[in-house]
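Hi all, a correction to my earlier message: I attached the wrong file for Chromate efflux transporter. Here's the right sequence:
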Amino acid sequence: MTNNTEYTEPRTSSVWEIFRVALRLGLTSFGGPVAHLGYFRAEYVERRKWLNDRAYAELVSLCQLLPGPASSQVGIAIGMLRGGWLGGFAAWSGFTLPSALALAVLAFALEQTGSADGSWARWLLLVAVAVVAQAVQGMARTLAPERKTGTIALAAAAVSLLWPSSWVQLIVLAGAAAAGLIFFKRVNEAADGSSPFPSPVSARAAVWLLALFVLLLIGLPLAAAVLDNKWVQLGDIFYRAGSLVFGGGHVVLPMLEPAVAEQAWMSGDRFMAGYGAAQAVPGPLFTLSAYIGMAAGGWSGALVALLAMFLPSFLLVGGALPFWNALRGQARLQAALTGVNAAVVGILLAALYDPVFTGAVHNKLDLCVVLAAYALLVLWKVPAWLLAGAALAAGIATTWWI
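and the right structure:
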């Protein structure tokens, strides 16, 4: 049996060191979750040697299986392995707070300046169309590259367009998992005899964490239905989003948009403007929750929404780490996830049409701007954050100074 030190060194990092390293990543990690994982590897594996490539690859695999923000979950897991629960919280705080604070300040500024209608964000909305289109293309190439997965993706898109609801999305994902079990076979990638990660969480505690995850997932919607309380409703919406979103930050868009419209927290333009602005800041796209929370309940709302969005990640990472060696070799789980991942492509494709395209493109000039942004992203490899940042600056300039 392989010694645990093959995976990672003993947890010797201080909480402050973990936070400081993660904060640097949170200030510089532009480009989305795949880019984040590259930044993480350079910092944690190559530079600091907190864990080796094998351990890092397995952590990435584990977090890809979990719903929620995969890159944030990898950071939380590394922090937990180095410094226990406080280390995990420090790693999350450092990586998340810069973008969360920037988006909350943006929402606050829009309210204070009277530009809450989102008219300043025309260019940002058009860039967002291109960014989502690029995400659909990339995910389809990876997750739905052949006939069966492509069929699941297109079916999921059709159902999502005809019945746009977060609950319908859950049904679509469940159906896709069942289809995966039927149509796909996976080679059993059983553990090779190596020992599990030196998790700071015991198996018994992990069971309680997973039980709490399920209890909140069931209990919060019930509490929100019974109690006429804004904070409970806010926590419920963002906890469900953080619990049920597979496929990265872009997929949170179709889950949150109907809820935001139903609660009338902001206009559709403002929602899409925040989504576009999230492309221009480093860190996880899930910090869009702070932007929406600010509109719903000020600074307290931003904090509640942010914590509720990421709480499932802590519960799932803590609950899964002790059992990863057993889970990673389950062929049936891999088959179900093949179907789920294909459905995620379809859900995102539906969101690309409505609300992303229909909310931004109103004339031929708008379409030409989208095509130009798409060409820059896909053909010329211009980073999404650079395009979004330029669009944000242009929008602010044309609104307030021109």
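Sorry for the mix-up. The radius of gyration is 21 Å.
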